[in-house]
Design a protein that fits this description.
heterodimer, A: alpha+beta, Thiol Ester Dehydrase, Chain A, five-stranded antiparallel sheet, 4 helices, 5 strands, B: alpha+beta, six-stranded antiparallel sheet, 3 helices, 37% strand, HotDog_dom_sf (chain A)
Chain lengths: 149, 130
């Protein structure tokens, strides 16, 4: 952990979609996941985890890995990044007319040692998703882990 | 008393399934399709996007607890990578039902060798009124 990294805690990033979610996006997600829920396949109601996928409106350039979604661009030399997990809370279902805003906050960076004795940085972020009326749709606590190479 | 275990949801994840999910979520990370990128990292097959397991678990939960149940909480931790061509099994056990709320313990296993892909994991659902 460096002072520069520690200073990043508390940062926020906000992304608002330029248009409503739309039936096509909902139907495509349902088809891609083999979802048989008629309301999802019709595009009337978004499957719950779709609202937490925000790459399509992050409006960020693709990085060297091809990824164009939200990232904090933390400088952690000599480490590889792995996903730790997610905790979703679904407050209200999203529909095709919802214009979604994702508000990310970098909540914590903690140093740990794994079972193999390698140092890790565990980065915890919280994303809050709302629609154009301020209705809370979901929250997503995400853990990313930088493991010493 | 033993917990009620639901019939697992089983999915074979082929590369076209991964391409469809990448398209649906605009996730173009090379880990999911680029052989040269993978080889440089000592991987011989594309890696399944971990977030899809959240979607599969949500589908499984709806099947287990009915179309009128409402998923309110879903939490999962990744344990190992899953690769294109592997088959996964979403398992669930009903931990409790109280005041119209069901808590379910979850995990995702790889069928071919039994390794855990996702665990621990859990969900809470609001059940329809009788």
């Amino acid at each position: 952990m460096t002072p520069a990294l520690a200073a990043r805690v508390g940062e926020e990033a906000v992304y608002t979609a330029p248009e409503p979610l739309g039936r096509a996006s909902i139907r495509y997600f349902a088809l891609a996941t083999g979802d048989s829920d008629p309301a999802h396949l019709a595009g009337d109601v978004a499957p719950p985890t779709l609202v937490c996928e925000t790459n399509q409106y992050a409006d960020r350039p693709r990085d060297a890995d091809g990824f164009a979604g939200h990232r904090w661009d933390l400088d952690v030399p000599g480490a590889r990044l792995v996903r730790g997990g997610n905790t979703y809370r679904f407050h209200s279902p999203a529909g095709p007319d919802d214009v979604i805003t994702a508000r990310w906050r970098l909540d914590d960076i903690a140093e740990r040692t794994n079972g193999a004795g390698k140092r890790m940085l565990i980065v915890t972020s919280l994303a809050t998703y709302t629609n154009q009326d301020g209705r809370l749709l979901a929250t997503n606590e995400e853990a990313l882990i930088y493991v010493e190479a | 008393m033993s917990k009620l275990e639901f019939a697992p949801l089983v999915r074979r994840i082929e590369l076209p399934d991964m391409v469809a999910y990448a398209g649906a979520t605009w996730d173009w990370h090379r880990l999911h399709y680029d052989p040269a990128y993978l080889a440089a990292r000592g991987l011989d097959r594309p890696v399944v996007d971990g977030q899809v397991f959240g979607a599969y678990l949500a589908i499984a939960l709806r099947g287990w607890l009915g179309p009128d149940s409402v998923l309110t909480d879903l939490s999962f931790r990744f344990r190992s990578l899953v690769f294109a061509g592997e088959t996964i099994r979403c398992r669930g056990e009903l931990r409790s039902v109280q005041d119209g709320v069901a808590d379910v313990d979850l995990r995702v296993e790889v069928v071919e060798d039994g390794r855990l892909a996702v665990a621990p994991a859990s969900a809470r659902l609001r059940l329809p009124h009788e």
